[in-house]
Amino acid sequence: MTEETREELLTVREVAKRLRVDDTTVRRWIKSGALEAITLPHRGKRQAYRIKKTTLDKLLTSSVPTS
After folding, report:
1. Domain coordinates of the chain in residue numbers?
2. Model confidence at 45, in pLDDT bands (50, 70, 90)?
3. Is the pTM for the entire model greater than 0.85?
4. How far apart (Å, rounded) are the C-alpha atoms in residues 59 and 51?
5. How far apart are CA 51 and CA 67, in angstroms?
6. Per-position DSSP letters for the chain, written without gaps between them
7. Taking Cα atoms as reference points, which of 42, 56, 45 lies closest to residue 8?
């Protein structure tokens, strides 16, 4: 994978901080299909996810009302 095609991946916590919501809210969005995420192999108490930065950017730009 070249540097140009490598995508920045964010954790649930990082997305929650940027959106100013709780981690649980982000997990709920992922499970409901409202937020696309990559599922990582399960280890520990909670399922691990990664969200592409471009996915978050699209979400943020689509929710901004245009005049």
Report:
1. 9-59
2. confident
3. no
4. 11
5. 29
6. --TTT---EE-HHHHHHHHTS-HHHHHHHHHHTSS--EEPPP-SSS--EEEEHHHHHHHHHHTSPP-
7. 56
